[in-house]
Every structure is written in C-alpha cells, then in structure tokens.
Amino acid sequence: MATQQHGAIAATDAHTLSADKETFDLAAGHELRVELDHTTQVAVTVHAGDAEVFGTPLGVGGRTLVVGPQKVAVYTMGGARVEVQGSPEVMYVGEETPMRQYINVHDVLQAQRDACGRGEAGADGALVAPPKVMLVGPTDSGKSTICKVLANYAVRCGSSPLFVDLDVGQGSLTVPGCVSACAVEHPVDVEDAVFPGEPPVVFYVGSASPSENADLYRHCVERLAGVVEERERRDAVAGSSGILVNTMGWVEGLGYELLLHAAEVLKVNTVVVIGQDRLHAQLKKRLGSGSGKVAVVKVAKSDGVVLRSKEQRQEARQRRVEEYFYGLRKDLMPVSQTAKIENLEVYRVGGGPKAPRSALPIGATSVSDPLKISKVGDFRDILNCMVAISHASSPEELLNANVAGFIYVQDVDVEKGTVTYLSPRDGALPSTLMLAGTYRTYFD
Ligand code: ATP
Ligand code: MN
After folding, report:
1. Whole-prediction pTM value?
2. CA 167 to centroid of ligand 2, rounded, Å
3. Is the peptide bond prior to 196 cis by the omega test (within 30 degrees of 0)?
4. Which residues contact 155 (CB under 8 A, 6 or more apart)?
5. In the predicted model, is pLDDT for residue 107 greater than 60?
6. Burial class of 425 by CB neighbour count within 10 A (0 to 12, 13 to 18, 19+)
7. Ligand 1, CB within 6 Å, residue ranges
8. What is the distance between the alpha carbons of residues 205 and 8, in angstroms, rounded to a whole number?
9. Residues 8-30 pLDDT 10s
C-alpha cells in the first residue's frame, strides 16, 4: 500500500506555508476538513493512529504537503493525532461523515471484483461480472470525491479499476471538453490531487457542456466504451477490477438522458446516487428491474462538500488548461510556435448553426448533421480555443480516434497566413491533423 512521502518536496513559491501549528486528536470516524485557496498550503503530519485523505493513506510520521486551491478532509477510521502546519482559510472537525457508507459500498464492490477474478458464478449461475459503477448526483454532491475514495480503496486491495471521467466541465484527468479514462494503479497523490501513472485515453468533445453537441458527446462516450471493452478483452485481471465512472452534475432533461445513454454503452451494473431521493427513485425504476438489471444504491452527501459558484467553475476550467501547459507547480515549459496555416489540417465537428425554421421552405426540417466534420477555413474562428492533435491518420478517422494532446491558439495573422499557438513542448507536432473545440479560454 503506497503512502505519501513528500518531506523532500520544497514549498512552492506561490503558496505561503506559515509556521502556525495546530494538533488535533480525532476520534474514530471523524474528519478534519481543511479548505485552502490558491495562495496557501499546509503540511499535515500524522503522529499516531490511521489517517487518510479521500482514501489515500497518510503514513505515521510522514509529512504531506497539501497545496491550494484544494478542499480536503483527513479522515480517521480508528482515531488519530494529526498536526497541521500552516494557516488554511477554513479548518474544522466534522463529526458526522458518510465515509462508513462509502466504505460499505466499496466492500460490496471489492467482493464482486474478487469473485469475478476467481471466475465464480453468482446466484443466477452466470459468471460474476466486474463491477461497473457509475456515480451520479447533482453538482456539488461529492461525485468526483467519492470516485477518488472508491478508486483508492480498490487500489489498496490490489485491484486496478479503470477510472472513466465523463464530466466535460469539471473532469479531473485532463483539460475541459474531454471524456477520458485511465487505469488506476496507485492511490491519488494528495499533494497534487491527481492519479499518478500513465496518461489517460482522451476523446475530444470540444465544449464544456454536452448540450452544445449532444450527439458528439454520445459518440465520444461510445468510443470510450470501446476502449473499456478492449481492456477487458486484453487483460482479464485488470478487467475484473471493473470501472468507476464519474459523471456531470446535470441530472435533468437531456442531462438525464445522457446519463442513461452512458450507463447503457458502458454496461454499467451498479449506479451510486448521491444524496437525491428523486434521482434515486427515477433511476431505480428505469434501470433496477428487468433482464439487464442494475443495482441502484443511494449514499448520503457529505456536509464537507464545498459548493462552487459558476465563476469558480469557470476559473477551475481555466486553471486546468494552465496546468496542462505549465504543470501543477509551473514546472513545465510550453513553447509558443508559429506555423503556416496552409500546413495544418484543422477540422471542426457539427453542421454549423442550424437555419432558423422561418428560413426553410414550408414542411422542411433542418438537416444539419451534428457529426459532420468540416475543415476550418478562417482560423480567427478558433482563436483562444484548444485544438486537439489527433491520432487519426485521415480526416475520416478524426471522430473515432483519441487525441495525443492539445495546442492553444494564441494569435492568428490572416495577412501572413500564420497561426501562433502554445504547445506543451518544442519541436514538430506529432500530427498536423487536428480537431478544434468551441470552448474558449484566456490566459497569458
Ligand atoms: P461537480 O458537480 O462540480 O463535479 P462534485 O459533485 O464532483 O462537483 P466534488 O468535486 O467531489 O463534488 O466536491 C466539491 C469540493 O468539495 C471539492 O473541492 C472537494 O475536494 C471538496 N470536498 C468533498 N468532500 C469533502 C469533505 N468531506 N471535506 C472537505 N472537503 C470536501
Ligand atoms: Mn465532479
């Protein structure tokens, strides 16, 4: 079981670490909640007992830096003495947490993984399937956090689930506008709040909300489902660990339909609903009976979950893009490059704006194809957009291929016929075949 050893890592310049110290004696089942903005960090030392941050254990004696902006909880199952150095914006002990419920869910999933790995048959005589779990709930219910908790517990039990992130707005594996997946092989690194390991498999939807092109979103989820199936075929051991799917907080109307679609194509067999009786009842009725029966369970939302405003969400998205290029602690060096537009093949998806009904002949319906790709002619249209470098080898493959990485369009000079973009690294791009998104973001 991996523990965090960050004693050697220096405090980053941008984050203050004050000398203030406070020690907490946490009773069994309590958690210390620490909220840090982007200017602060704290060092957490466990002096005795057991302590973990969203399922990642903190070893006794080790010193873990937690760098803002982050909101974390140091939870203890059996009681712990924890020292915090630094001055967080908010710090308090939560005496009631739903962690026990989350652990119970994990225990059931782990038993299923083990039975699947041993090739056991279930009560119905069929082989036990790997747990394919989807976490759903409204915005700010703690979906991403519970995914982390469940993934960390699985890894600590020797499993390696595939984490699938379908949240194009607040995903945790890559830049906004993507659906992605990665194998979880180590607990989340508390300092960075990321899953260490191989880069994720990424499909580019190109916008921060699936409503802009729901067909494209569905298409990308279907491609990702193909990746999941491929992994199961290739590696039975990894396959028996199953998948954990994080979803977006849009649970009404089209958002709800997209959840159902994802559950179907990813062959989800367990849905965990966070804190909403209505959604739980709705999903149970829809998925919980019949032949392809899905277990639909409900868990409570934690009081520790911190609400985020629309502006904070926008900021978080921009920060993701910055982190992609500059690194979590500004340790990467992206380069700005200028290229001839004629040498690049940038495509976009969608039939463009639909003609208003009034402009069509009577009886005709709009025929724009949401999955139509067309070459971007005027690069000013993609100024300040993220453009994905595709693994596709022809334009026809663009929609079905995952992406190698991203560039950011910084400047377009129509007269000179050039585009200036920010690239994660120096040198030629791995491909000149690219897919542009519509999501715009601004940073230096
Ligand atoms: P979204 O709808 O934006 O995707 P979400 O439902 O995924 O939100 P989270 O991102 O899991 O919610 O939680 C929101 C914030 O609350 C995060 O910063 C997370 O670290 C924090 N948080 C969650 N649980 C706790 C807790 N028990 N104590 C302190 N902070 C917490
Ligand atoms: Mn989330």
Report:
1. 0.93
2. 7
3. no
4. 161, 184, 185, 186, 187
5. yes
6. exposed
7. 31, 33, 71-73, 137, 139-145, 167, 170, 249, 302, 304-306, 308
8. 39
9. 344 455 788 898 999 999 999 99
